[in-house]
Amino acid sequence: MLYNMFNEDLLTQCRKPYYKEQHMEPAPPPDIINEEEKYEVEEIRKHRKKRWGTQYLIYWKGYGNEHNQ
Fold first, then answer.
1. Could you tell me the pLDDT band of residue 7, with boundaries at 50, 70 and 90?
2. 0.85 cut: is pTM over it?
3. How far apart are CA 20 and CA 51, in angstroms?
4. CA dihedral of 56, 62, 63, 69, whole degrees rounded to 10
5. What are the boundaries of each domain within the chain?
6. What is the dihedral of CA 53, 12, 23, 27, to 10 degrees?
């Protein structure tokens, strides 16, 4: 199975946060190994089966809960 991943920091918001709690701190920069960005998974928090495969909720090492995907 092939999964596409992208950097959320490259996305732009359609609106500015209205409430203070909506503001997220920027993510720390990724590790660069052999000239490629690398991110380390700390934990898979949940998973669920779908018709076309399995979806995972990933907790990234060094990032807060707001960066879970």
1. confident
2. no
3. 38
4. -10
5. 39-69
6. 70
Reading the block at residue 37, the tokens are: 């960005």
Q: What is the C-alpha radius of gyration for the chain, rounded to an integer number of angstroms?
A: 14
For 8-63, the DSSP string reads GGG---SS--SSGGG--PPPPPPEEETTEEE--EEEEEEEEEETTEEEEEEEETTS
pLDDT at position 3 over 70 = no
Count CA atoms within 13 Å of residue 40 on its CB side. Answer: 7
**Cβ neighbour number for residue 59 with a 10 Å cutoff:** 16
Average pLDDT over every residue of 29-52: 85
Query: CB–CB of 61/38 below 8 Å?
Result: no
Q: Rounded to an integer, what distance in angstroms lies between the CA atom of residue 45 and that of residue 31?
A: 22
